[in-house]
Amino acid sequence: MNQMLSSYQHTAVSSIANSRPETLMVMLYEGMISKVKQAIEKFDAGQVVQAREAIIRTMRIADALQENLNMENGGEVVKNLERLYDYLITELASANRADSPKSSLYNVLKVLEPLRDGFKQLEQKQP
Fold it and tell me: What is the mean pLDDT of each run of 10 residues along the chain (127 residues)?
């Protein structure tokens, strides 16, 4: 069993390492969207601790994306992404503190879904 899991993990890591940047961005955004939706579901089920854990994971991804922006060479696109990531992190932090976080989480989805869709379009245009 451990050998099968190890083989699967190796294949998954190789797949990610060989992916194009657009594909990686789509994967990251999809992961964030999934965690935000999970947080909403967990809050609805009264599982506040699990909801907050999903929010924190989403914040970590957003933070990592922001930290890895190439501010020197990225131009206006990177500046806009930095502002969007700032907004996402602020909304996620607000959701994590709020008794009623769904509004902030839906705001996050309204940003993430178009970002994901934009990178999907870029991914499809690449040969």
Answer: 45 54 91 97 94 96 91 87 95 89 94 94 79
Cα 49 to Cα 31, 45, 52: the distances in Å are 19, 11, 5
Contact by Cβ (8 Å): 54, 32: no
CATH number at residue 15: 1.20.120.340
Greatest pairwise CA separation for the chain in angstroms: 49
CA angle 57, 119, 82 (to 5 degrees): 60
Which residues span the domain enclosing 41? 2-125
Local structure of residue 98 (DSSP, 8 states): -
- Taking the model in full, what pTM does it have? 0.83
